[in-house]
Amino acid sequence: MNILAGQASQLLAGRVSRELESNLLVSEFKRFPDGELYTRILDDFDDSGEVTIIQSTVNDSDFVMLLQLIDACRDASRINVVIPYMGYARQDKAFKSGEPVSARAMAGAIKADNVYTVNIHEESILDYFDAKAVNLDATPLVGSYIRNMEFRNPLIVAPDKSAISFARSASENLGIDYDFLEKTRLSGESVTIKPKNIDVKGRDVIIIDDLISTGGTMAEAISLLREQGAHEVFVACIHPVLSNNAVLKLFKAGVKGIIATDTIDKGVGVVSVAPVIASVL
Ligand code: R5P
Question: Residue 114 has what pLDDT?
């Protein structure tokens, strides 16, 4: 098995390759003076002829590079594509008239024998790939990491209703209670946001979501929970997109720690999803 890393996923590809003891291919990545991307695989494929390309598509350039790498592997006997974090997945439908279904546009361009994603934002996107597409769940790995931490009377909290299933799965895995933040309108001008059922006073809280992007959702939740007497507040996610000043917002809000995976190569990736990817290859 050959493992080919896109520029965005070098660390994770290296870890997967180490798990599988496979042939890690080195490529060169550069830009032409006009800004176009150039990539070239420098190493030889092993005799298997099978290649697994690993590339998260955090931004447009990552996506273009993935298409280039797939084309560069055109002579391989089998091409697997792993997209640990798939960008554009939040535009999984046309919310307003005139909008594209961006996730469908991206998926339709990826030609491979097998596609693997990790905790994709919406599983229905898998149907947009021509290839057989499988979504892998890294929640148990994050759960194991959390299990080994020390907390005071911990509580898992989903920052909104859309993250409840995610929080529930982590809660079941860990045997820790969970709740979600609910907005209640008190009057035309005033709303309260607090955990629906459980008092957080004196408890450590782990807020869990599939991804943190601008950090706005998490920062608001951290501030609220601290105001309501939570002891320490941690945030956990699969995909640390952490765009712009998100990390600063989290610290300003009083976060105690950030727990994330290496689907996106950021300093906060304390949990590797390499085992879950290696297990399907
Ligand atoms: C929403 O659907 C996601 O699960 C996250 O809650 C959201 O994308 C987080 O975005 P931000 O960090 O920009 O608030």
Answer: 97
Output the CATH code of domain 139-262: 3.40.50.2020
Give me the catalytic one of 30, 161, 183, 252. 183
- Intervals of CATH 3.40.50.2020 along the chain: 2-137+273-280, 139-262
Q: Which CATH class, in words, describes the domain spanning 2-137+273-280?
A: alpha beta
Atom of ligand 1 lying closest to residue 90 CA: 2
Q: CA 162 to CA 179: how far, in whole Å? A: 12
What's this model's pTM, rounded to 2 decimal places?
0.92
CA of 221 to the centre of ligand 1 (A): 12
pLDDT digits (tens, 9 = 90+) for 156-210: 999 888 888 888 888 888 889 999 888 666 666 665 677 677 889 999 999 999 9
Where do the DSSP E strands lie in the chain? 2-5, 23-25, 27-31, 37-41, 50-54, 78-83, 114-118, 132-136, 155-158, 178-185, 191-195, 205-212, 233-240, 257-261, 269-271
Which of 164, 217, 245, 268, when mutated, tests ligand 1's pocket best, judged by the most ligand atoms within 8 Å of its CB? 217
> Ligand 1 centroid vs 38 CA: distance in angstroms?
32
| DSSP alpha helix (H) spans, the chain | 10-20, 60-72, 102-109, 139-147, 164-174, 216-227, 246-253, 274-278
Is there a catalytic annotation at residue 196?
A: no
